[in-house]
Design goal:
The complex is a heterodimer of chains A (about 160) and B (about 550). With about 160 residues, chain A is α+β, with helices and mostly antiparallel strands. Chain A contains 4 helices and 9 strands. In chain A, the strands form 2 sheets. In chain A, strands 5, 6, 7, 8 and 9 form a 5-stranded antiparallel beta sheet that branches. Chain A has a 4-stranded antiparallel beta sheet with strand order 2-3-1-4, covered by helices on one side. In chain A, strand 6 and strand 7 form a beta hairpin. Chain B folds into 3 domains: about 170 residues, Rossmann fold, CATH 3.40.50.970; about 160 residues, TPP-binding domain (Rossmann fold, 3-Layer(aba) Sandwich); about 170 residues, Thiamin diphosphate (ThDP)-binding fold, Pyr/PP domains (Rossmann fold, 3-Layer(aba) Sandwich). The chains are: A alpha+beta (about 160), B alpha/beta (about 550). At the A-B interface, helix 1, helix 2 and strand 4 of A face loops of B.
């Protein structure tokens, strides 16, 4: 079976410790978790988690079943990657040693539909959203200039179909 | 109704029908104990919190009710933890109430503060920390529901001291409401029908019964199924007692120290119906050669168990009793009355060929002989509890049981020190039957302080210590797989267990000869007093047969 990256969403009760229960489960069961993001859902008292997990089908099945066993987990869904919107946000602080370099970075940021959200004499911060591949590409590009700091939110995702 | 938090907790426990709880009070749980002083709930003061958790677990295993234990914050709660994991691994319902430092001190490293919720998060099915007095009735209701339904397990409620003391408006709910919690009880009819067809057409069917059969009370249905189709039944350690071991089609326990007949039959089977078991590594041996020819049907209430350890061809998620009932319904419509098949004859031959040998006359005693004498002395309703290690496997392998809930053992966690406090819980659940703990000297020493509890509370359990002065199972592995390098297993000058018992006010009897065993057990039962039998056994006796680690069930060896 192939190891693959999968996206799961979990609706969970908005209670203290839920995050620890979920992350603890991954550690306890030796599952590989690539990213986890959490925030309020459309329903009061219910949070929505987006998890990206690496593993074969058998591992994925176990992850879903084990998550479902947690009392505070209400529903777990696997996101079909071909029919979803998956986004990540990154803040990238890049070193700008000269005017020219700064101009180059601004140009690149525009190409990637990023925004410059802060400028200092020797650095600037780009805000960029998109799928992970796009952010990976931008990150790689910026590496040549020197990334001072990088913050990525991890994926948050939703299926397109109106279910 | 206005009342204090501590009152609300005790009232809620009473409303759940709690009759007994095991525990030790401490600074952070004094308000609860103050209310218990006037309560109808019988409190058994153990001498260590671990024992309180095991006693609650043993009580749950025998009574079928939720076992309740309690401890104070910090060390009290951490001491409970082993017992909680033990109940979790074997799926028994326990509710633990722990005191916690007052809310304003939480996170300040206050005296006797421990992160009980964090520590027990993976030790329990679920846990709660109370944040208001008003939520107490709901939390207790939900805790008991979670502990006792679906796949049972332990639940902990952590109660900060200020919540115990504060007054609030209390309303007791009739029903639990937990939005993310809905156990599946009824198996899918199509899957069950498919299972019925597979079993009807099987040439060499076998049933593997686990603890789930006992938990769901499905022993009658299991028996009917086996009788109807003539299917031999092997059990896991936890499933011991789910099928009468004196039945012609009973194969006994399967696995690392299982009966040879059971291991071979599983190896030969073409359809394996596993019910309420989780395919532990001690049951399956090397997974890749487990039941290599069998189409595997797996019935379990926990969907996550399906496909976790063994690849399953036909999963049925549901309660064992319900599923078996439905399965029997399907079968009855189609059944041709079972005749003796070639497969049944083969299984009986296996049984005959590999009869366990127990009747030794040796001195020092052979543990097998001790187990035989105990078996011959006790009644079918009497309860055998075990510690962990060689003593446990001698009991599990040799000692036949015919009824559910009469063989109590720490299966998943393998907790030395479980047996004695669990016996105490068992005896309280069923005071009219004899309870005997088959122990090793190593295991018994891990919770022997509970002699004080059983003497003080007049709980006449019997401990049969197979005294070999070794941590025997580790020594056996060192002998077999580590060139007899006996590292840190010699218990040396172990205490005089007779005197130890007497020092606590219990009865002590030393047993050294084969003809003394039976009478000593009888004497202990008849005395009505807690008794320790110090049974001197051959120190280098091994438990065989055995599947060496990492090998197939069929590779089971004799010594």
């Amino acid at each position: 079976m192939m190891e693959e990256s999968h996206i799961l969403t979990a609706l969970v009760e908005d209670r203290p410790g839920v995050m620890q229960r979920v992350s603890g489960l991954f550690r306890k069961r030796n599952f590989n978790i690539d990213s986890i993001s959490v925030g309020h859902s459309e329903k009061k008292g219910v949070s929505r988690m987006t998890l990206t997990v690496t593993g074969d089908d058998k591992v994925l099945e176990q992850v879903i079943k084990q998550l479902n066993k947690l009392v505070e987990v209400i529903k777990v869904s696997k996101i079909d990657k071909s029919d979803c919107v998956a986004r990540e946000l990154a803040l990238v602080k890049v070193v700008t040693k000269s005017e020219n370099i700064r101009a180059e970075i601004v140009q690149y940021a525009n190409i990637f539909r990023g925004r410059i959200v802060d400028v200092r004499k020797d650095s600037l911060i780009v805000e960029i959203t998109g799928d992970s591949a796009k952010i990976d590409a931008f990150e790689k590009l910026m590496e040549s200039y020197g990334i001072k700091e990088l913050a990525r939110t991890g994926i948050t995702a939703m299926t397109r179909s109106s279910k | 109704m206005k009342m204090k938090g501590a009152e609300a907790i005790v009232k809620a426990l009473e409303k759940e029908g709690v009759e007994v709880m095991f525990g030790i009070p401490g600074g952070a749980s004094i308000p609860i104990y103050d209310v218990l002083y006037d309560s109808s709930i019988r409190h058994i003061l153990t001498r260590h919190e671990q024992a309180a958790a095991h006693a609650a677990d043993g009580y749950a295993r025998v009574s079928g009710k939720v076992g309740v234990c309690s401890a104070t914050s910090g060390p009290g709660a951490t001491n409970l933890t082993t017992g909680l994991v033990n109940a979790y691994m074997d799926s028994y319902p326990v509710v633990a109430i722990t005191g916690q430092v007052a809310t304003i001190f939480i996170g300040k490293d206050a005296f006797q503060e421990a992160d009980t919720i964090g520590i027990t998060m993976s030790a329990t099915k679920h846990n709660f920390q109370l944040r208001s007095v008003e939520e107490i009735p709901t939390v207790v209701k939900n805790a008991f529901t979670i502990a006792s339904t679906g796949r049972p397990g332990p639940v902990l409620i952590d109660v900060p001291k200020d919540i115990q003391e504060k007054e609030g408006d209390i309303k007791f709910p009739k029903k639990a409401e937990i939005i993310g919690y809905k156990p599946t009880l009824k198996g899918h009819p199509r899957q069950i029908k498919k299972a019925a067809e597979l079993l009807l057409n099987a040439e060499r069917p076998i049933i593997l019964a686990g603890g789930g059969v006992i938990l769901s009370g499905a022993t009658d249905e299991l028996r009917r199924l086996s009788d109807l189709l003539g299917i031999p039944v092997a059990t896991t350690l936890m499933g011991k007692g789910s099928f009468p071991e004196d039945h012609p089609l009973a194969l006994g326990m399967v696995g690392m120290h299982g009966r040879k007949a059971a291991n071979y039959a599983i190896n030969d089977a073409d359809v394996l119906l596993a019910i309420g078991c989780r395919f532990s590594d001690r049951t399956t041996g090397l997974v890749s050669c487990f039941a290599p020819e069998a189409y595997i049907i797996h019935v379990d209430i926990d969907p996550a168990e399906i496909g976790k350890n063994v690849n399953v061809h036909l999963p049925i998620v549901g309660d064992a009793k319900q599923v078996l009932k439905d399965l029997l319904k399907f079968l009855r419509e189609k059944i041709r009355k079972g005749h003796e098949t070639e497969w049944m004859r083969k299984v009986m031959e296996y049984k005959k060929e590999f009869q366990p040998k127990m009747d030794y006359k040796d001195v020092p005693l052979k543990p097998q002989k001790v187990v035989k004498e105990i078996m011959d002395t006790i009644g079918e309703d009497d309860i055998v509890v075990t510690e962990v290690g060689q003593c446990q496997m001698w009991a599990a392998h040799y000692l036949a049981r015919t009824k559910p809930k009469t063989f109590i053992s720490s299966g998943g966690l393998g907790t030395m020190g479980f047996g004695f406090p669990a016996s105490m819980g068992a005896k309280i659940a069923k005071p009219d039957v004899n309870v005997i703990d088959i122990a090793g000297d190593g295991s018994f020493l891990m919770n022997c302080q509970e002699l004080a509890t059983v003497v003080e509370n007049d709980i006449p359990v019997v401990v049969a210590v197979l005294d070999n002065h070794y941590l025997g199972m580790v020594r056996q592995w060192q002998e077999l797989f580590y060139n007899r390098r006996y590292s840190a297993v010699d218990l040396g000058n172990t205490p005089d267990f007779v005197k130890l018992a007497e020092a606590f006010g219990a009865k002590g009897i030393r047993v050294e000869n084969p003809e003394e065993i039976g009478p000593a057990v009888k004497d202990a039962f008849e005395s009505g007093r807690p008794t320790v039998l110090d049974i001197i056994v051959n120190p280098e006796e091994n438990i065989f047969p055995m599947v060496p680690p990492g090998r197939c069930l069929k590779d089971i060896i004799e010594g």
